[in-house]
Amino acid sequence: MAHLGFGGHLIWGQPIGPIEQALAPCDGMTHGVAPWGPPGYNMPKEFLDGMNAREYPPYYLGDWPPERGHGREGFPSFGWWPFSETIIHQQMYVDWIRRAYNGGLRLMSALAVNNRLTAWLMEGRNEPNRPDCWDNRAISDQLTMVKILAEGNRDWMEIAYSARDAERIVGENKLAIVLGVEVDQVEWMVAEEAFAIDPVLRAQFESEMGPYSRSNIGLPLQAYV
Fold first, then answer.
1. In the β-sheet with 175-182, what is the strand arrangement from edge to edge?
2. What is the mean pLDDT of the chain?
């Protein structure tokens, strides 16, 4: 569900939904982001072009494609993507996961990912007013979507919340999905949960760090949670 991270525009395509919509060709420019930046400079396009260039190193694919650029073609031709090296287009689709399951796959991880700088470059610009830039929002959105995926295919997949769960799910001949997180900062989410449970903890934090806000959530929080 990485398409929901990074501001929601870095990775084009979705792993669920009608394939003609989920893997439709991208715009080949900014993945739907309005151009912004200094005069004459389209920041989202420049960033995506740089990421796209990393997908086709000469030592890997020779001279293919003959004309470098941001390839658009997803469904139905799949002329440019997906392929294993793409980092700005979707690589996963539920039908393909089912095909792997039919071939023997019984355990798969699903990581919620994000990077606030990338989100800012692609969409944010005014980060405090854009909660989708923050890791806790990206984590929540992505894990919610994984749960929707699992529920919609519960006859052959299920989320495993423990090793015992995974053992049971695999024993039932289903695909066990193991959730994980790969982000830069999770303190905001940890603090919200910890402080909601223990108001005394929050009072102690604020007495030493000042009023609780995103600006003062960082490494010192480790001493409290």
1. 107-113, 175-182, 157-160
2. 80
